[in-house]
DNA sequence: GTCTATATGAGGATAGAC
DNA sequence: GTCTATCCTCATATAGAC
């Protein structure tokens, strides 16, 4: 298993988020090249910093010390590059969620673990997550179905979370008066948007962030007994 | 008080987020034109849907039923348009926060009100909030200091929130073991990112969303007494 | 695998007629 | 206030030499 898209899956079910592509060396296909991987990483950083559209193939090439025409020896379009950035991240994420769900544990424990997984991806996949957030709607708006897998992956992840939240409610661990889907979305957003401001080296690392958030998520920020405070 | 940038401020201190611009009819200056306002609204929708860069001046003009050249009678650049979209939103938001802080009330009450204000902007300023999130880093990366006010406004808002959180801790209403700045960021992110999925007409309106979030924020999603659960 | 050279198109913006 | 016509720049992508 040398494929760059699955080798970080920690041995989990390795079903990729996306089917085989139809273009030159689409993500999830073909033998991985280290040179190619390196170019993808450079491009990801630029995409994250300036946005996908604002990043030119000339800049990517310059960053790699070659000319823009040479990039097309490795990729058949700029879209193919960003495609590979995103699938690499999504395959890793979904794979790790699957592992978490395979463990046995009560819903609250599993949900905590899923929160930890989310935060733990912030550093290794910072660029990809940033691109996903900033360029999601643009990529989705492109003609063709090339980026439909983004929505499919999102749906699969949502199902995983919502199911655990519902199980937690059924087991009496989570309050019955919160909306599972709404709660999932707020958790998800809180985790991913942290890429905007999280920088390694601050007071808290991502593990610390995760524990802080788990505390607030389950128990809230108010002191004392649960209140019926009227704001 | 006919200026579009301040007329939604409910009578609060009307200090705009931004100084007078230097370009043709920059936001917060000059007599407002309804035609111009309309064009800004059309552009905002396109910016939100496709991203600022992916939206061409030709598309904006077409949406308005004119040709691209005619747009330059109203604005001297595409940047001026997005500038106006953002300042209109920020002036409204900051103005309303200022009003909330002028009321007397304990920190928890004020914080709840600030959460409500945030969610209440989701509908009227959906496009602007979307643009802020998706194009923030690109706009900030442009040469010149034109969009520096984005950071200034962000800083002012952060100070407002963090101060109330600290007051809440000092008053014993909020737990002392959560980080004020971190907590603020998570609240902020949770509110704004909701523009990505919130659509009017669903089960909950923005007021309902706000109450749901206030509940979870203060009391958490876990049932029963505060737990020291080991996830 | 990279370079040179270039096709091809689209974008923001302008000038001046109406 | 809008249109016509157009400039200029810069983008992605290609072809073929090395």
TrEMBL record, chains A, B:
Matching InterPro entries: Homeodomain-like_sf, HTH-type_TetR-like_transc_reg, HTH_TetR, KstR2_TetR_C, Tet_transcr_reg_TetR-rel_C_sf
Residue ranges of domain HTH tetR-type in the record: 33-93
UniProt keyword annotation of Transcription regulation present: yes
GO molecular function: DNA-binding transcription factor activity; transcription cis-regulatory region binding
Region span, Disordered: 1-35
Keywords, ordered alphabetically: DNA-binding, Repressor, Transcription, Transcription regulation
DNA-binding region boundaries: 56-75
PANTHER family: HTH-TYPE TRANSCRIPTIONAL REGULATOR RUTR, HTH-TYPE TRANSCRIPTIONAL REPRESSOR KSTR2
Record protein name field: Transcriptional regulator, TetR family
Species this chain originates from: Streptosporangium subroseum
Lineage: Bacteria, Bacillati, Actinomycetota, Actinomycetes, Streptosporangiales
């Amino acid at each position: 298993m040398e494929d760059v898209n699955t080798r970080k899956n920690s041995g989990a079910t390795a079903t990729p988020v996306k089917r085989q592509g139809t273009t030159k060396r689409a993500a999830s296909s073909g033998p991985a090249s280290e040179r190619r991987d390196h170019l993808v990483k450079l491009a990801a950083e630029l995409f994250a910093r300036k946005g996908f559209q604002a990043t030119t193939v000339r800049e990517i090439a310059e960053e790699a010390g070659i000319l823009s025409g040479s990039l097309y020896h490795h990729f058949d379009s700029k879209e193919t590059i960003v495609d590979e950035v995103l699938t690499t991240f999504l395959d890793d994420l979904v794979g790790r969620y699957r592992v978490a769900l395979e463990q046995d544990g009560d819903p609250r424990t599993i949900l905590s673990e899923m929160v930890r997984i989310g935060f733990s991806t912030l550093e290794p996949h910072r660029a990809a997550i940033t691109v996903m957030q900033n360029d999601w709607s643009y990529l989705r708006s492109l003609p063709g179905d090339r980026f439909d897998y983004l929505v499919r992956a999102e749906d699969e992840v949502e199902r995983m979370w919502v199911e655990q939240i519902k199980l937690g409610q059924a087991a009496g661990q989570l309050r019955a008066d919160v909306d599972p889907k709404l709660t999932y979305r707020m958790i998800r957003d809180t985790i991913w948007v942290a890429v905007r401001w999280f920088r390694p080296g601050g007071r808290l690392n991502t593990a610390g962030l995760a524990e802080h958030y788990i505390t607030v998520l389950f128990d809230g920020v108010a002191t004392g007994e649960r209140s019926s405070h009227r704001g």
